[in-house]
Write a structure and sequence with these properties.
Oligomer: single chain
Radius of gyration: 19 Å
CATH architecture: 3-Layer(aba) Sandwich
Protein name: NAD(P)-dependent oxidoreductase
Order of helices and strands: EHEEHHEHEEHEEHEHEHEH
Number of helices: 9
Shape: globular
Domain NAD-dependent epimerase/dehydratase: 5-223
Organism: Pseudooceanicola antarcticus
Structural class: alpha/beta
Distance between the termini: 39 Å
Strand content: 15-25%
Amino acid sequence: MRVFFTGGSGKAGKWAIRHLQAQGHHVVNVDQTPSGLDCPELLVDLCDAGQVIGAMSQFVDFPELDAGTGVPTYDAVVHFAAIPRVMIGTDGECFRQNTLTTYNVIEAAVKLGVPKVIFASSETTYGVCFADGEVKPEFVPIDETHPTVPHDSYAMSKVCNEATARSFQARTGRDIYGLRINNVIEPQEYTEMFPAFMQDPALRRRNIFAYIDARDLGHMVDCCLKTDGLGYEVFNVANDDLSVGITSQEVIERFYQGVEVRHEMGPRETFFSNRKARSMVGFNPQHSWRDVLA
């Protein structure tokens, strides 16, 4: 597939693009800074609607000119570009850029006839991650039916983006899938970060004791590219196991007293349920910090 990928210069985007390329997809990275990846790139301000639709409808590489058949179209758009969290710039600017870029990208995609859009939403939509103080989920494990009541501008932007995507899908009938991505972990970060999580599980409370390996996130994007006909859907994206060394039951006893437990959980089962992604698009994560650390 020919894929218009925004935000490929970022942490998650680089791994996703590498995985998609390994699966045979032709990926064009669209960002404000070069990625260093071996793929065509366009430097674009996604807050500018004209630049977005222009980038999505132009040549991107010399071999495309040689064919003499006009500008090739895209089979899918993957939108990862965003200010990645609060407390980088101002809250208002985080909200403005994240909502405006998502609107511009999806609008351009549907007007140009791209049949599929996959966009990055977030674990933060459930209101736990960036809350002022401690907010507990209404039930565990958290699945996509859990209320999304954000407490911060980043999470607000992601909830707005989901509403934007649902509206475009309802109007056009295209496949538009949102990924509520948990904390993205690169392979080298297991040895850098996870020993501290073993010592103090409370460090993972805001991430609902979950994580997503960057390589498995790329796999999830590929699963969505290969799954047609779902209309509008959102999916939690996390690895199968906890990001701490204690058991699920110990997590419940220490951190989720009084919280409804929806079903009996396995000893290492994630509290950020990925069952919907597994059943609907064939998501099957392969990596775990337990493969690296004893």
